[in-house]
Amino acid sequence: MKLIYEKSSPGRPGVQMSSIRISPTEEVPEKYLRSQPAELPEVSEAEVVRHFTALSRLNFSVDTHFYPLGSCTMKYNPKACEAAANMPELTGVHPLWPQLRGGGLLTQGSLAILYNTERLLSEATGLAEFTLQPMSGAHGELTGVMMMAAYHKDRGNEKDHIIIPDSAHGTNPASAQIAGYEVVTIPSDENGVMDFEQFKEALNEKTAGVMLTSPNTLGVFNPRIKEICDAVHEVDGLMYYDGANFNAIMGRYKPGDMGFDICHLNLHKSFATPHGGGGPGAGPVGVVEKLRPYLPISRVEKTKDGTYTLNYDEPKTIGYIAPFYGNFGIIARAYAYILSLGCDGMLGTSNRAVLNANYLQEKLRPLFDAEYKGRCMHEFVYSGDFLKQYGLHTLDLAKGMIDRGIHPPTVYFPLNVSEAIMIEPTETEDLDTLERFVEVMEELVELAKTDPEKLHEAPVSTPVGRLDEVKAARDMRLSYS
Amino acid sequence: MKLIYEKSSPGRPGVQMSSIRISPTEEVPEKYLRSQPAELPEVSEAEVVRHFTALSRLNFSVDTHFYPLGSCTMKYNPKACEAAANMPELTGVHPLWPQLRGGGLLTQGSLAILYNTERLLSEATGLAEFTLQPMSGAHGELTGVMMMAAYHKDRGNEKDHIIIPDSAHGTNPASAQIAGYEVVTIPSDENGVMDFEQFKEALNEKTAGVMLTSPNTLGVFNPRIKEICDAVHEVDGLMYYDGANFNAIMGRYKPGDMGFDICHLNLHKSFATPHGGGGPGAGPVGVVEKLRPYLPISRVEKTKDGTYTLNYDEPKTIGYIAPFYGNFGIIARAYAYILSLGCDGMLGTSNRAVLNANYLQEKLRPLFDAEYKGRCMHEFVYSGDFLKQYGLHTLDLAKGMIDRGIHPPTVYFPLNVSEAIMIEPTETEDLDTLERFVEVMEELVELAKTDPEKLHEAPVSTPVGRLDEVKAARDMRLSYS
Amino acid sequence: MKKTPFCATSEQDQAVMFQTLGIADFDELFAAIPDELRCSGVDIPEGLSEMDMMQHVRKVASKNSTDLVNFCGAGFYDHYIPAAVDALSSRGEFYTAYTPYQPEASQGTLQAAFEYQTAICRLTGMEVANASLFDGGTALFEGIMMALRQTKRNKVLVDEGVNPIYRRMLQCYTQNLSVDYEEIPISKGGVADRSAYEAALDNSVGAVVLQNPNFFGCLDTLTELIDKIHEVKALAIMSVYPMALSLVETPGAMGADIVTGEGQSLGQPLNFGGPYLGFMATKKKYVRKMPGRIVGETEDKQGRRGYVLTLQAREQHIRREKATSNICSNVQLCALRAIIYLSLVGREGFLDVGHQCMDRASYAYHKLTQIDGVEPAFNRRFFNEFSVRLPKEATGVVSALVDQGIAAGFPVGRYYKGMENVLLLAFTEKRTKEEIDIMVAKLESALKA
Amino acid sequence: MKKTPFCATSEQDQAVMFQTLGIADFDELFAAIPDELRCSGVDIPEGLSEMDMMQHVRKVASKNSTDLVNFCGAGFYDHYIPAAVDALSSRGEFYTAYTPYQPEASQGTLQAAFEYQTAICRLTGMEVANASLFDGGTALFEGIMMALRQTKRNKVLVDEGVNPIYRRMLQCYTQNLSVDYEEIPISKGGVADRSAYEAALDNSVGAVVLQNPNFFGCLDTLTELIDKIHEVKALAIMSVYPMALSLVETPGAMGADIVTGEGQSLGQPLNFGGPYLGFMATKKKYVRKMPGRIVGETEDKQGRRGYVLTLQAREQHIRREKATSNICSNVQLCALRAIIYLSLVGREGFLDVGHQCMDRASYAYHKLTQIDGVEPAFNRRFFNEFSVRLPKEATGVVSALVDQGIAAGFPVGRYYKGMENVLLLAFTEKRTKEEIDIMVAKLESALKA
Ligand SMILES: Cc1ncc(COP(=O)(O)O)c(C=O)c1O
Ligand SMILES: Cc1ncc(COP(=O)(O)O)c(C=O)c1O
After folding, report:
1. Rounded distance, CA A213 to CA A218, Å?
2. pTM summary value
3. A82: distance to nearest CA of chain C, Å?
4. Measured in angstroms, how far is the CA atom of residue D101 from the centroid of ligand 1?
5. For burial by CB atoms within 10 Å, which of A327, A389, C367, D423 has the most?
6. How do residues C188-236 score in pLDDT, each as one tens digit?
7. ipTM value of the model?
């Protein structure tokens, strides 16, 4: 499809922006100004609408396709949550108004949403306090480990590393590193959880903490969590809970109860806010009482008279991790979602997410001739190794799905499973959709045996076939000219 | 694609509607109640969203395709007009509030929009008064001819027929008939306008009026309009202007100036309100001073103190043609559009609509080997007769366009041109789109000569091919069971 | 520099086109038209930028006060519309398409219309439905014309329990036609007066129009009356409130021949009177007399299922003055909203909403009738709307409450002589117990005042 | 009966699945997990129906007052957003998609990102841009880390003219890293202090961070200073306001190596602080050190053009702790809104908006500085924002005007000692002449008071 720049022609009028004029009293001298206007497209409003409408139709999305992308929780994003967050009374507020004396009173609604959401998340996770400022999961991790660092500094602890299992998401080690820590990686045992013995060996006085994802990216819940927490607390280490998979346990288990000290949640996963093609999301972080002093500022507080204020005066805070209060628009969506779920809804939702995953794991086991390793949580991982005998890889299976109107699951992650295929159906899919998915998988595996070439060629139903990524990296055509 | 009913399964939960309960003080007896609930679909919200999103993608539309559907004016529908009309302050108002004493003050905004829109349309058409109540063009025609009838009754005129050219839209005669008039049809002359001699013969004392579309559905403007008006007024007949094509002349000619007494406009054509897949539209009707007393009630009036009120006290009114004030939501969109155009914009818009049409007429003339019959207005009609030599019809040409991503023009209308193809590009299309259309036409005519079968089979790119309309009428499967 | 909004061509484009046409400017395009017809200009303000237009409309709109707590229904109801209705019906592919004349390029609109027709049949208990008419009033007129065409008679009896706004529309529409229009007063109990119909029904009557629940909110069991209507070979037309059909007996089960109604309550905002949704359903044997578009199922050459506009021989673009109606554009987008609404709430949710409406009305009815001086106007059987007789004129009481931010109902005296004290109140799922209690309290004190 | 909202399976479905799994209820799914971990329940309210939820949020939202006439900018601006931006970015295909890991099924997101990257390059005058970062502050931090990686040095000089909010973020982010962070005070004229840089620039410096226009709104010509920075082989990082780039000289033309900024003004609502849009552009030679996703053009086997995420070897999912950044989810939808916005206003409209902002500021500047006691704080060169020194503390004056419905600007004293009297005012195309006149008048009387 043509680029919007290729549709541009000199003088084609866009949206009428010129409004009632006010003549300037003085012109800015040339030397401060650009010599040429930026070469933006010149297209009619109608053409822009057609262009981006057409582009949208080239996407797979939750609203159009089953999207069982493991670890990404592609659940339905309720339209009402969009409508709630898009109320002009919310979107029109300038973030600096609370800093104008008396201005805070003009934003009580937005502050109330922040305050209430913090309380709801604290209760859901069993943690004392929450900050909503992190703008993604990774950002939440960074915020968490920075609080870890602040805690140890404050206590005079000499810590130099963080322990992370090899099944962890790449953002964990990357975040730990930005907080100034070495990363010690622990392999997974045959059950897919962090090898307990090797963990014990790695753990020592210099261990700042451990970052665990539970259920982890294999969809397995580590049953020895309490032991791990105790051991880490022994050396005054802190337990970090990567809550990207909180949707598997919400309403049933609380990270705080299990002994975790810090936890981030992905609102754009567990709390049904849209992924937007790669964000914006939100990665709020909760902490236990003892870490409260290190939370980023500002803090939203409720005064006796019921009004909400912002507190910037926290001597031990790690400081400003966001310009303001986080991705408010995303937080508002999650708030609407949590209000809709309520207490029972939380448990009901995780129950159904886990049931859907187990049903698929069961039905697909024969196809992947995987032995039974017990129940999974909200997602599960199989290996596509068996495809090699047909000269195929997991990627070929994935591309075949695209031609059958299903977005492929996550592939080649986690890295500790060869030819991994990671499937997360979510609770917003009904039984018919799951059955259809099983049929498609069966059809594809059959095709792999009988006519593998077909899968090599897939996808054929998309505007483009498999794209040459090597060429992309070599040519580096990163903008239109 | 499956029907929503085919996706239904017992107990699948839809949107949560149950809210805080109030227990009834008394139950309604069985005999008043239905024994079985209506068998509505049982599907999840996510499934409903996917279903209708998928359905939408089966449509051609202005937002996705060039749509040169003659006589229908498929111009771009500005998103801002949608946004303006969808403000909750406008959509949330109950139409009966003005009838509650003091309630009118609560709807001053909506009344102002109605009043202002009437004024703007009066000025644009050169007519004294407007009613916004008609809910479509045809409804406007009926309202107009009913006022015609009321006028003649009031004057004691004995009228029994209305004169309508054969090129008129089918709604004209149909509307005239509901107002109790016979229809006298006049053929078109070689220039495509109503044959003047035959018109003069048909005109007599019993002529209630003449319904003209100008420019007519052939895109031709009748140059003898003044003569016709004078002749009709001679016999105290009334001139009706079908303004569905007003977009060709707005800002340049005014029906009132030309001598018309009654005129309806299609806001869903000339004033860019969306067609919605077949409505809702709006067909406001304007009249000259002498017809003011017959306008439908209520009338929006502006008092000295600047407030707006509704007047129901008009002894000679034809009465209630709508439950309230017309399709307010559509009127609000047109109001936003007219405010955006302004005085210069009206002329600029009709100029460009006519230029685009003439350009296509010129470029396509060789293809249809049509002789030059002068300029067209906003649309033009060619005959597909030449296709017969290849065993093809205009319909085949039309279906071929679908496969090339263009919605076909209007075909087989007007009825007085054999194998008619009626093309209206509108002013919101740029030159590239027009050129592409010409290329596609050339390609199709070439294909007609070289490989007509291909056109017989078209369309092949759509979810279904040509559908069996005879079977549909025979089987009469009009609902799912 | 001044631009013409929304137009797509550049001056450069226009120059190319002028050249192709061998002209120098726009005016030459109109050379054939006598100059004296040219107008002197349009005396309206200059065009506004999008931002200024939006600001202007927002300012005007702010003159409305939408925070009125509304108990005013009278045929048009303030129901909750799930967010997905807007999200889906606002997709450009739906609302910027034309009437589906090219079925292969319009299956979205056509299948949705077919699903809508099915839903209307299931709500009303009828066999066939059309794809929409403008509103409940025009639908009722079309229903009468259809019945008179079918029975080849010209007399219609219209019950006074039919919405008075619709009755005015019927009077308007029939004024130039050879239709013998007669209204039948309601009974003391506020429903169709059996004896009056006994008297009026004869072989000249082609159609009888009833409404259930009627304008006063009263429910009735109309099976016997409809049998009587059929005895004289007239057709029974029933106007209904679709939300009531969640719980109330269907017209189909009562034997109605033609069912019409206002579909606004199915996902359309009140929007100061429109666009609304007129629906019509009937028996299969009458379908060829039914006005409006009808979508039917069929197949393509490869046997793939598809949908088309069918039985078009009834319509104006084919039959011209002999058509069953003059309607062309209908309100397809409103029908789409209705089927989206019904699919979202679903079988159970629809029942649920019905119960909430009925329960709230029941609660309010008993609170109101406990106020001394406030009497039930008619029988005690209603869905979500009922009438009470106040000790004083209703208009004054209502305007007193309007000033306190409450639309306490509709004073029916405007349309019914002798009922100046009768107030009609409607209750939807949107009204809370608190709101009802406050309304009752304020109404009580307004009566004391 | 209680339901779990948004979940799709019926109890019937669940029964089938239980059977397949050979279990009796949900709890059995969790049998392997020690019981003592089970929580006692979540103590939050019962779930609300959609209607009740919407009513609740509407009630809370109504506690905000958005009708404040806003002259407060300070890096975040109240620009008009054309309606088509919402209409298009709210299409489900865009906002319910994930990161485009499967390019064949994500060309919509990918092509739009490529078009966005192109627009950022053209606005900034740079060669390459990434697909987005969270906001202007995190983008600036990422820019510094990138520069230090590139220069293998650890000292960064940050101009005090850089938004103080961003400087606090930089202090926060660098606290655990071996980064030598130093701030350079501004000159009397309110711009980068040349002599101070003369003194501070040496071979230990890896990066220098400047902002133009700076926090006080002052415009500067930075070419010479950047040359000096390059002389010591340090990289020049410039933080910019994209709307200003409609008229103001580009960082590229001044020689900047890395450009970052806040893209909120390009089609994002203020939304109480987010989501916003961090952008970053640089020179091609530095691209492998750039953090964040990058979309590149390529082909499929049949030579059809397509777009993919490229140079992923930089990223955490491959490099883990050795990645150029920990970022994963970015703000793709905001980038989409930005390219839609820029396409709608287009080349000319963007200039137009720029002029309107600048003209309004110029008009207000001269009205304000005519008030006696009100002095220009710095030089007279600005785009749409400037600082004035008041005869009294700005906070009091501003709060006086807040009470009258006007946010008259941002008192910079909060972040700059000794500038308690300095007020920073911003002007966008949304502010009318009348609003400006009223603000000036009220401010004058507030000063008298
Ligand atoms: C387990 C886990 N942790 C962290 C992340 C990072 O979240 P984000 O993409 O919001 O930075 C993800 C998301 O991919 C994840 O699945
Ligand atoms: C010339 C003409 N007159 C009348 C009509 C009828 O308008 P509507 O479809 O709004 O009833 C049309 C629209 O098709 C038309 O083109």
Report:
1. 10
2. 0.98
3. 8
4. 14
5. A327
6. 999 999 999 999 999 999 999 999 999 999 999 999 999 999 999 999 9
7. 0.97
